[in-house]
């Protein structure tokens, strides 16, 4: 039977453990020099972790933070670069003599011009997706291969996403798409890591007072975000860091494959952006709402093909051309639309590739990049070219894998989740044009794409 001295020793050990729950652990925080990432790095350090402050450009801020923490180093790394991510993990092991136990994938960028999909340049899309999505993928994959498994405490992976994945505000299409894809990847990854005691979760902040949030927004817009939140304020980086910190502890082992929205209770954000520019606040007066006269539901001027193609009885001959195009190539997509007859009314973005049965740890960067960029280029071209007022239609073929998140399909499911987020944003941006945008998400279908390698 334990005596008073034994009980006191156990209590003292428990208190010390709770004060420094991450003692002996090594944590990598990407995007750790500023904003939310800086607060997370400082918080993990206060919990006892040795911290690698990953940064891409803010060297002075990263170095000053590392110097202020008891066990920390600053390491420069472009997360969109495969070799740089590998070097980041190498640097952690070299600095602290141990492989990292924790990854916080926080690095992110935003186009502060808030363009609609129709106005988004390929360069802007590539930058946002390159850092937010490809960068997260490369970090997640490296963590899946290098974090220690089993033992007394498993590894911890936390990706910082965004609450915009649930609200789809206009002007954020590329950003929302990138973050939605990361959430799909992390949920899948949590299943793939079964048996390792490594957990994978997301924390999705709402409007948080950082330089990235304020960039390009008017004072009225910022005030609207604060006033419409149930807490009647913006979030602070210090509101997010403790949530991430908890997920990195052993006490959070039963929280796995989750997206935790840290947004003060604001679940549905109104669209605060109009015409691609930050809104200056809601104007008074009544909205001019025009109700269109209902027309019979038929494809006027559009041809329904019978099975086998050919002619439609009582109709003119179907006009069809075949055009080869790599949809991931901007010039090729433009040429594809140029080869089509004038007055395009329907666009179906169906092109896609899938490599089944590849875990995240074994997925190549090339396989991962294939679907999202091509869909974006086709959607953007459609948003600019489809005839307004005549009921244009945009359909993107995604996949039920987004909902099922089956192991072995994370790159595919992630890319399709990004497309679904973009399409929801496009549908809002095309308000008033009578152009609709929707997704069709098939389940398993007997095609060569589905049966390949399965």
From TrEMBL:
GO terms for molecular function: oxidoreductase activity, acting on CH-OH group of donors. The keyword Oxidoreductase applies. Transmembrane segments: none annotated. InterPro entries: KR_dom, NAD(P)-bd_dom_sf, Sc_DH/Rdtase_CS, SDR_fam. SUPFAM superfamilies: NAD(P)-binding Rossmann-fold domains. Keywords: Oxidoreductase. Residues 25-206 form the Ketoreductase domain. The keyword Ribonucleoprotein does not apply. Signal peptide: none annotated. Belongs to the short-chain dehydrogenases/reductases (SDR) family. This is Ketoreductase domain-containing protein. It comes from Eragrostis curvula.
């Amino acid at each position: 039977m334990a005596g008073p001295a034994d009980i006191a020793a156990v209590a003292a050990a428990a208190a010390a453990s709770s004060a420094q729950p991450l003692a002996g652990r090594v944590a990598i925080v990407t995007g750790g020099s500023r904003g939310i990432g800086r607060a997370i790095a400082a918080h993990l350090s206060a919990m006892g972790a040795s911290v690698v402050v990953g940064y891409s450009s803010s060297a002075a801020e990263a170095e000053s933070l590392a110097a202020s923490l008891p066990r920390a180093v600053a390491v420069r790394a472009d997360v969109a670069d495969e070799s740089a991510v590998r070097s980041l993990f190498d640097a952690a092991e070299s600095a602290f003599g141990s492989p990292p136990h924790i990854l916080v994938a926080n690095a992110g960028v935003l186009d502060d011009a808030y363009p609609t999909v129709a106005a988004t340049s390929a360069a802007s899309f590539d930058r946002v997706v390159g850092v937010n999505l490809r960068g997260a993928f490369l970090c997640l994959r490296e963590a899946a291969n290098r974090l220690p498994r089993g033992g007394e405490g498993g590894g911890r992976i936390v990706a910082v996403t965004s609450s915009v994945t649930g609200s789809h505000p206009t002007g954020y299409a590329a950003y929302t798409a990138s973050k939605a894809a990361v959430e799909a990847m992390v949920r899948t990854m949590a299943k793939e890591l079964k048996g390792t005691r490594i957990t994978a979760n997301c924390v999705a902040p709402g409007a948080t007072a950082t330089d990235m949030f304020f960039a390009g927004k008017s004072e009225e817009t910022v005030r609207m975000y604060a006033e419409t939140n149930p807490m009647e304020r913006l979030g602070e980086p210090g509101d997010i860091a403790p949530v991430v910190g908890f997920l990195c502890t052993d006490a959070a082992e039963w929280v796995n494959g989750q997206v935790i929205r840290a947004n003060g209770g604001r679940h549905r954000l109104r669209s605060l952006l109009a015409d691609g520019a930050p809104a200056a606040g809601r104007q008074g007066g009544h909205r001019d709402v025009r109700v269109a006269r209902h027309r019979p539901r038929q494809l006027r001027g559009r041809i329904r093909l019978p099975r086998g193609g050919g002619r439609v009885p009582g109709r003119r001959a179907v006009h069809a051309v075949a055009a080869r195009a790599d949809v991931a190539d901007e010039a090729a997509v433009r040429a594809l639309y140029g080869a089509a007859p004038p007055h395009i009314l329907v666009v179906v973005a169906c092109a896609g590739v899938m490599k089944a049965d590849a875990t995240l740890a074994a997925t190549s960067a090339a396989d991962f990049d294939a679907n999202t960029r091509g869909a974006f280029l086709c959607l953007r071209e459609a948003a600019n070219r489809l005839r307004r007022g005549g009921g244009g239609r945009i359909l993107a073929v995604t996949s039920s894998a987004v909902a099922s998140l089956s192991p072995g399909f994370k790159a595919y499911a992630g890319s399709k989740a990004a497309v679904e987020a973009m399409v929801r944003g496009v549908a809002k941006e095309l308000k008033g044009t009578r152009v609709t945008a929707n997704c069709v998400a098939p389940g398993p279908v007997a095609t060569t794409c589905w049966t390949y390698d399965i």
